[in-house]
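Each lists chain and fold; for instance:
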Amino acid sequence: MKQLTRRVWYLPHSPASDRPALGYIRGDRRALMVDAGNSPAHVRQFLRSLEAEGLPAPDLTVLTHRHWDHTFGLAALPIPAVAGAATARYLERFSAIRWGEAGLQEYIDLDGLREFSEPHLRLEYPDPATIRLRPADMAFTDTLEVELGGCRCLLRTIPSPHCDDCVLVHVPSEGVIFPGDSCCLHLVRGDWVEDPAGTAALLAVLETLSFDVAVVGHDDPVSREALLADLRSRAKG
């Protein structure tokens, strides 16, 4: 667990089984977890890391989008989960799957999983029958403000080249955003595909926000300047 600011920590990403970075924001009254991890093992790693730092367990988690590596740990978290309305609809659909080899194929067919991700998923779940996925407890449209006590978290749905249900977590007092995978390319089966229009739409939103650093899903935290420069380059096509 790495401390970024007085109130913000994150568990770094791990590419071996595509574990994304998980965020932790501590207010005076409650704590917020950003994303739910890709498995119960990922969740246990996160909670052990908090304990080692003397930090309390989170009271709430926010999901940045639907993909398995950000949501399949949810069933192992005994706390409410907040998601954008689009993500909540996807999770309702995926939660009805009867997991196993047939269920995994159903998930792939529903476009919930890309060919790139399947080998990583099988590292976390050698037996797909052990997968459990629960829906979100609360859903919002457009924006939502969460007060943690001396620290506000602003949640907003955002356009993205990656997928159609992205949510960004903004902690203004700390100068930090958690954009999840919204800055990533779009995966079409096994291929990464640029979407200049989607990138430009995301860039237009991020340019309006005041922040110093972004904790992205599958890389180290990046400065505002570096992130916006990369998006500007990609938006040109």
Observations:
- Residues 40-52 form the longest helix (13 residues).
- The mean pLDDT is 94.
- The helical segments are 40-52, 68-71, 85-95, 101-109, 118-124, 196-206, 224-235.
- The first strand starts at residue 2 and ends at 3.
